[in-house]
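[RESIDUES AND BACKBONE]
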Amino acid sequence: MSAPELSRTIKARSLPADPVVIEANEGERDALARRFGLPRVDSLRAELTLEEDGKAVLATGTLEAAIQQNCAVSHEEFAVEIDEPLLLRFVEEGAIDPALSEDEEIEIELSPEDCDEIEYSGDTFDLGEAVAQSLGLAIDPYAIGPEADTARKEVGIVQEGQQEGPLAAALAALKKD
């Protein structure tokens, strides 16, 4: 396994009192762009407060990023701003209950705290990699850019529910009134 593109290790037993700010440098942003198949990551910043939560470490804060993404329809590049709240729980390896056998079907109800539990081993965890993974989850793989409708029309694709022609224009005008 290769080294994480955005590694920031934190000692689990001596948490910083002040919020931790993670800002990706140019090399890290380039590596993250390659990892997530993006033309560019222009900026990436996360600010997280860390606190003990029983045997776990709770990280709360925000992720802000400016990326260039390819439109799912026209393949053009367009700018996307990401502003996401983060809630991560770092737990020691083995602390997460093992799942039942793969053959058994179970229904599990998750609370918001359960959704982003990250196991770590030793006395440190990688907050930077968790931020990088959060960025990956925040990227819309089917994002549509501003020229998508033009590209659709050029190849003769009409969106579902959309009509073209004089009758469609007359009906649209009646709906506005």
About this structure: The longest helix spans residues 127-138. The beta strands are 9-11, 20-23, 40-53, 56-70, 77-92, 117-120, 124-126. The longest strand covers residues 77-92. The two ends are 61 Å apart (CA to CA).
